[in-house]
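Posting for a labmate who doesn't have an account.
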Amino acid sequence: MTDQTPMTATDWTTGAEAIVYQVCNACGSIQYFRRRFCCKCGSLDLKVERASGNGTVYATSLVTRAATPETRAHVPYNIVLVDTTEGFRMMAHGDNDLAIGDKVTAKFTKFTDRLVPYFERTKA
């Protein structure tokens, strides 16, 4: 993904089926939330990498009450924290029966007309 800057990288937030993260070329730190600088050392020398979509469930929370009228059609839905194999933690949607420690793989789905990462248990 060398043709994309850390702030313009195409991923699920822009409608592409991808999860991207940043790696600091100065200290090697990994960060998921897009920034213009490294949170660890302050360097502006960041590169963008595409994540594999694989990880392990760190936490899970089943939402049973719609927060907005738009989410009512999706209830119940599961929000998961996933520790990715690349080393960052992200929040996303996931299968309702996921449990802490499950190995998962990301796919992408529509949620209230937006493309979002959706984790399901990795098939053996």
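Reply:
Got it, the structure tokens are right above this. The CA atoms of residues 58 and 124 lie 19 Å apart.
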